[in-house]
Amino acid sequence: MHLLENLSQPAQAMYNKMMNSMPEGHIYSQIELTELVGISDPLRLMGLIQETMNMGLVKMLQQGDELCYQAIKKEDAEKIQAMTKDEAMVYSYIESSGTEGIWTKTIKAKTNLHQSVVQRCLKSLESKRYIKNIKSVKYPTRKIYMLASLQPSIDVTGGPWFTDSELDTEFISSLLSIVFRYVMSESIPTEDDKALKEEIVYDQLSYPANYSAYPTITQIHEFVHTSGITTVELAQSDIKALLDVLIYDGKIETIDHGMTYRAILGATADDETSAEASEYDSIWSYGPFL
Amino acid sequence: MSQHEEELVVLLLRDIYGDIVATVVDTLLKYGRLTLQLISRYSKLPLATIQRVLVPLVQNRFVLYWVDENASSDNATYVASTRNMYNIVRSGMFVSFVLDRFPDTSGAPDIVKNLLLYGHIRASDYLAAQSASQAAVSKNAITLLLQRKLLTTLRRHEFNPQSDLYMRIFNRRLAAIPRSKAVSEAKREVQAHAEATEEFNVLKRVHDDINDGLVAAANGNGSSSKRGHSLTGSSPSKTVDESAVLALNHDKFAVLMRAQILVHLASQRIGKVTAAVYGQVLDCMEPKLFRCVDNTDKAITITSLEVLRSLNANIKLASAIAVRSSKKRSKSASSRVSKRQKRRHGTDDSAGESDDSMGSSNISDVESSHRDDDNEEGDEADSDDKCANNTRMEHLNFHLALLSCNQNLPFIKKVGNRGGGEWTIDFDTLTARVRELEYDKLITQKQGAIACRLLRIIRDNGRVDEKQLARIALLPPKDIRSQLTALHEIGCLDLQEVPRGTDRAPSRTYYLWYHKPKCAYALMTQAVLKTMVRCYARVIEERGRRPSIMTKLLREDVRLDEVNMLTPAEREEVRRVRGVEERFIAHMAKLDKLVLIFRDI
Asked: Where is the composition biased (Basic residues) (chain B) (predicted)?
């Protein structure tokens, strides 16, 4: 509270108006600000802005050629006021990097601070839980920081296939096998009760050539979603990636020009080689493929 | 021709015909075209021996000869034909194939065995060597084999190398085109080439006539009438032309093996019954197919009606294809249809029934007909034949549609509606796909499923860099690299470097993986051939380890009565050697199937 108390009355009023009249984080142009506060004299307004800026309650930004202003929450302002100058500078860069995070080397280059100073600042900021260290999928060796309150973006985490910035192969393979089993169950008819009762023996069970109820990508997505296999949110494009892998594994195929999917007869869910494949078991025992 | 194939045929000839034959063939393979004197000089064998050895080689067309009509000396030159020698590997398959189709008593297997031994035989000679009753049976068998094109007739030019034949035709054609100032020399040559190619193709297809080697039975042995005009098919009144020279037709054999492979694939991908139907389709086409590769003929079509007529009555079309939906979708036929339409058309249930789109109406038709068939199986006996035939036709078309519906693996293609549906097979596309599948199977076997996944991605995307591969395959990049290099090692993949700058620094270079099927398959075939060499060498080695028993087995009296002439220990030994031999020979047959797939179909 003491930050506000240090301000003059008009400056306090301006800050309160800026905070309350628009949603948080709104950027005011000078004209907007003039209308909001009702002070037409630019010099007087400038004085007020300077006052609040000294307290770290307002941030100055540049949009094109124009200068703009943004009100900062009291708590954040207090946080920054409590920091040393270097810390505040480092913090501001980390803050501006948003959900992408920022590499320590970039911080060093931008702040022009010495390596050890940057390190010290980062350490103290991290110990206060203002920022956190994250791992990027793209650059696994870089030390990247972002605000502790934010969630890293998909670019950084690598999407649903990554757990702790590593490709979660077990998760993927279990999903692959589940999706395959589902497509398989929809691709081959099962004998119904009537057939069993009348003891009709089928040599072959096939849907007709123009059968159109093979699962589409939407259905498969829905199945994965409703089955509750995973808590990870999967988009349709993720399911498409899974299906593509299954196609490349020779387990399913697309029909209807890629609209629907069908399992290939004789394919198995597991990677174990089928009986068919072992036909050539020992072919390579002599050949130069050795 | 390849090193390993040459190695294999020399090994085979050494085992079958002995060292001298193998040496002569080896010399010919090493040095190419040679005259008698040169063979003698290089192989360091006396002339007379070589002359003796060349007789069986030429007889079997393992060695082709050429006498240049323009050359001053009349010395013949000799060229070894690897392909003809390689066919020795298939002799066992050929015999078993004929045994499957013709009973042992029909005489057909004997003819094939004799032809394998002698290379070619004049029909009259073969018949003359048999008793009258036997000869009649044999004559009949030869006629049948000729009609099936498993036997072919030989002409004089088939003992000559094709390149020489072509050059002779070309030279003759070139000489026939008059020189003139208006036509440049290059143009003359192009014209001569075009004409020669045409004439050469006619020469190559000389056996494609349906009545080749056959004469009308009543007409006697007149060879002048052997070119019948009728193209309607060989009637039973045809019989073998006794003056014809017979040989085995390996081209046709490849066609039949291809059909077997395709049917097997269909049974795996679709099902037994559809595969049986497919076999019938291929059977119907077979008389018009003469060879697998180098086929310039136009596409052959057949109609559903033709297939239906020749369809084996034992194939249970109706009960085999179960148009059963899974339980949750099948309450009754009508609800199933409406539900399906609901899926197709969104949510509107009633609209689906009225504006029957073509696809769904077909489904319901076939389903209901199939259902009727099931329910009224007992009454069917008294029902009209025509009606039954109609139902059968529907079911047949059902199977044919199944064969044609898969764009990734088009077993057949629909080209028209004549005769209840007109179909053709695009063998080039289909066999290319078979090769792909077979290659994938091999890669899976050798390198694992992951490698195969990567190969398929690369095949699908052209040139792919490692990062992209990792992204598509959903695999960590570090796992991929070892797989890719392993594939590179066996010649499956190639790597292209694309530098981003002029310095060609490795860090600033794209590495793109790509797959060249032709090259990869050729390398694979070489590997297979090499494996075959090793297999056969092993067989010979196994025999060589037991010299005493092997020499004893060669004795005439032992051969006739093995049980009594050998001691129990010896019999056990022989049994063991033969077991090993059998395993390797069977293995070679499997490998030969790969060679067939990758090279000959």
From this structure: 328-345
Which of these, B241, B237, B236, B247, lies nearest to B226 by C-alpha position? Answer: B241
Of the candidates A176, A188, A189, A169, the one whose C-alpha atom is nearest the C-alpha of residue A247 is A176
Q: How far is A219 from chain B (nearest CA, A)?
A: 11
CATH architecture of A2-73: Orthogonal Bundle (1.10)
- Would you tell me which residues 247-306 of chain B have a C-beta closer than 8 angstroms to some C-beta of chain A? 268-274
CA angle, A276 then A282 then A286, to 5°: 150
* DSSP 8-state code for residue A235: -
End-to-end CA distance of chain B: 17
Does the domain formed by A83-157 have CATH 2.60.40.10?
A: no
What are the residue ranges spanned by the domains of chain A? 2-73, 83-157, 162-270
Token pair listed for A279: 């036909």
At A261, is the secondary structure helix, strand, or coil?
strand
Helix (H, G, I), strand (E, B) or coil at A133: strand
Does the pTM of the predicted model rise above 0.80? no
Q: Which residues of chain A have pLDDT under 70?
A: 1-2, 191-203, 268-290
What would the mean pLDDT of B506-515 be, rounded to a whole number? 91
Fold match between domain A2-73 and domain A162-270: yes
Residue B245 parent element (H or E):
strand B245-248
| Predicted confidence (pLDDT) at residue B369 exceeds the cutoff of 70 | no
Q: Round to whole Å and give the CA distance between B469 and B512.
A: 10
pLDDT of residue B321: 57
Specify whether the CB–CB gap between B414 and B422 falls below 8 A.
yes
Q: How large is the ipTM? A: 0.78
Q: Measure the CA–CA gap between B214 and B242, rounded to whole angstroms.
A: 9
Q: How far apart are the C-alpha atoms of B37 and A228, rounded to whole Å?
A: 84
CATH topology of domain A162-270: Arc Repressor Mutant, subunit A (1.10.10)
For residue A277, which residues of chain B lie inside 8 Å, CB to CB?
Answer: 441, 444-445
Residue A28: enclosing H or E segment and its boundaries? strand A27-29
- Contact partners, residue A239, CB within 8 Å, separation at least 6: A179, A217, A220, A221, A224
Does residue A254 contact residue B502 with C-beta atoms inside 8 Å?
A: no
Task: For residue A58, give the 3-state DSSP assignment.
Answer: strand
Beta bridge partners of B18: none
- Which residues in chain A have their CB less than 8 angstroms from residue B448's CB? 271
E strands of A152-225, at which residues?
Answer: 162-163, 166-167, 204-205
Most B CBs within 10 Å, among A239, A283, A285, to test the B interface: A283
DSSP assignment of B538-561 equals HHHHHHHT-HHHHHHHHSHHHHH-
Q: Which single residue is written with the structure tokens 């076997």?
A: B445
Instruction: Give the model confidence (pLDDT) of B421-475 as tens digits.
Output: 888 888 888 999 999 999 998 898 888 889 999 999 999 999 999 888 988 998 8
- Is residue B124 within 8 A of residue B116, CB to CB? The reply is no
